[in-house]
Structure formats: structure tokens, C-alpha cells
């Protein structure tokens, strides 16, 4: 599983210094990675936790965060197609 974490980390960090503390905490899924969640992120996490029964979403790995970002962009694009307005 370590190779999956490394691959996901490489993709997320874009080849930056992988030995820095920030990189290591991001790979471990620390909530102190500096990213603030908006209400859409929180809604996605609640859906995953309570409806899909995927457990706590507090310490997500880099791969899980990337998946959540893809879900978020999909929701935003569908909203724009339906309403013609950007989601804030």
C-alpha cells in the first residue's frame, strides 16, 4: 500500500520536495494540511460517511482528497450546465 500512497502523493504534489514535513503529513492524511473545506466539501464528506458508510472523513489520504476534488468539480460542472451560473 505504500506504493499507492507514494504514487498519489507524487501526483498531488507535482514532483515537489517529498522529504518536507508538509508532504509527509499530507501523505498521512493529516487535517492540518492547510486546506480549508467549504460547504460542498463538507457535504461530500457527510454523504460518504453517513450514506455510503465509509467511516470518518476527518483524516483523508491524498488519494481520497483527490477523489473528493474530482467529485466536487463534477458537481460544479453539472450545476453550471443545469443553471448556467457558476457555483461559488
Overall structural domain count: 1
Low-confidence stretches: 15-28
Portion in helices: 55-70%
**Tally of extended strands?**
0
Helix/strand order: HHHH
Structural class: mainly alpha
> What does the average pLDDT come to?
76
Total of DSSP H or I helical runs spanning 4+ residues: 4
Précis, in short:
The protein has 88 residues and is mostly helical. 62% of the residues lie in helices and 0% in strands. The protein has one domain (1-13, 37-88).
Present the secondary structure layout.
Blueprint: H1 2-13, H2 21-28, H3 39-51, H4 62-83
Helix pairs in contact: 1-2, 3-4
Describe this structure in words.
The protein is globular. The chain has 88 residues and is an all-alpha fold. The chain has helices at 2-13, 21-28, 39-51, 62-83. The relative contact order is 0.14. It has four helices and no strands.
Amino acid at each position: 500500500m505504500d506504493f499507492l500512497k507514494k504514487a498519489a502523493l507524487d501526483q498531488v504534489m507535482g514532483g515537489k520536495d517529498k522529504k518536507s514535513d508538509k508532504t509527509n503529513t499530507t501523505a498521512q492524511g493529516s487535517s492540518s494540511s492547510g486546506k480549508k473545506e467549504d460547504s460542498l466539501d463538507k457535504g461530500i464528506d457527510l454523504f460518504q460517511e453517513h450514506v455510503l458508510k465509509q467511516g470518518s472523513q476527518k483524516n483523508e489520504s491524498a488519494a481520497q482528497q483527490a477523489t473528493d476534488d474530482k467529485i466536487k468539480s463534477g458537481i460544479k460542472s453539472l450545476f453550471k450546465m443545469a443553471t448556467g451560473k457558476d457555483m461559488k
